[in-house]
């Protein structure tokens, strides 16, 4: 794979943003001159950035022989949301970045059936939100995603200050209302329900109960969702292992190479 470190000017953010991109190596993949290469947007969690997936998983080795573009944007701790403090992170990923990258990489597919999104923790929420809101992605996956805030104390200092959460989502009390299974469930009715969804969470993860609750609500709303659980905590050791399963789940010719030659 060719690894590209890209800095581009975001007009809607009025600042430079970073994105890491893996591009298929013509010497190792079939159809290296394809004009329609599938693309996976891979989203980081809180405290992460565009390089995190590369630094902490075997991603580059896993896709080394697969004809797939992997896009890893840096969105800070903005929750893939048009924040109340004025930075439209959702619009960056949903609208601006795909058009920007298509100019740089004209062989990158624009077809929905070849466009995928996945993420962990905050990025799992972002993957589901973007897939439900845009109808751009055919497959969306969440690893230990924050698919619900049920049971989480957002007033806890370890979770960030109330001012931070209000800056992202607005009124925290409204966001946490037990009468509202949060934004994702409400988005299901507005989607065309053509996207396939996948979620995984470890049974020892502090988000396990929230994932169980969110998955039940999303399925009740009519979402096509495959849910897997296993032993695991909120740690990269488990996300690294589950990443391979996500890649195998995608409708691509995933050629796993167990050893580097």
TrEMBL record:
Record-linked InterPro entries: AB_hydrolase_fold (IPR029058), Esterase-like (IPR000801), Mycobacterial_A85_antigen (IPR050583)
Source organism superkingdom: Bacteria
Protein known as: Esterase family protein
Gene3D superfamilies associated with the record: alpha/beta hydrolase
Pfam family, one: Esterase
């Amino acid at each position: 794979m060719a690894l590209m470190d890209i800095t581009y000017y975001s007009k809607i953010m009025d600042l430079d943003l970073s994105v890491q991109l893996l591009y298929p190596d013509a010497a190792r993949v079939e159809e290296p001159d394809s004009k329609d290469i599938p693309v996976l947007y891979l989203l980081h969690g809180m405290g992460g950035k565009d390089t995190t997936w590369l630094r902490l998983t075997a991603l580059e080795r896993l896709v080394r022989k697969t004809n797939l573009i992997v896009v890893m944007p840096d969105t800070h701790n903005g929750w893939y949301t048009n924040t109340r403090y004025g930075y439209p992170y959702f619009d960056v990923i949903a609208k601006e970045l795909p058009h920007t990258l298509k100019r740089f990489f004209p062989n990158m597919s624009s077809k929905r059936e070849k466009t995928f999104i996945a993420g962990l923790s905050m990025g799992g929420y972002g993957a589901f939100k973007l897939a439900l809101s845009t109808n751009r992605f055919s497959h969306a996956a969440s690893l230990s995603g924050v698919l619900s805030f049920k049971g989480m104390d957002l007033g806890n200092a370890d979770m960030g200050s109330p001012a931070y959460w209000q800056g992202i989502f607005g009124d925290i009390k409204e966001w946490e209302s037990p009468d509202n299974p949060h934004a994702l469930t409400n988005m299901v009715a507005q989607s065309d329900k053509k996207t396939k969804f996948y979620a995984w969470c470890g049974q020892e993860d502090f988000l396990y109960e929230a994932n169980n609750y969110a998955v039940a609500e999303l399925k009740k709303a009519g979402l096509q969702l495959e849910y897997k659980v296993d032993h695991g905590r909120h740690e990269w050791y488990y996300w690294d292992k589950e990443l391979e399963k996500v890649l195998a789940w995608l409708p691509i010719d995933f050629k796993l190479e167990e050893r580097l030659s």
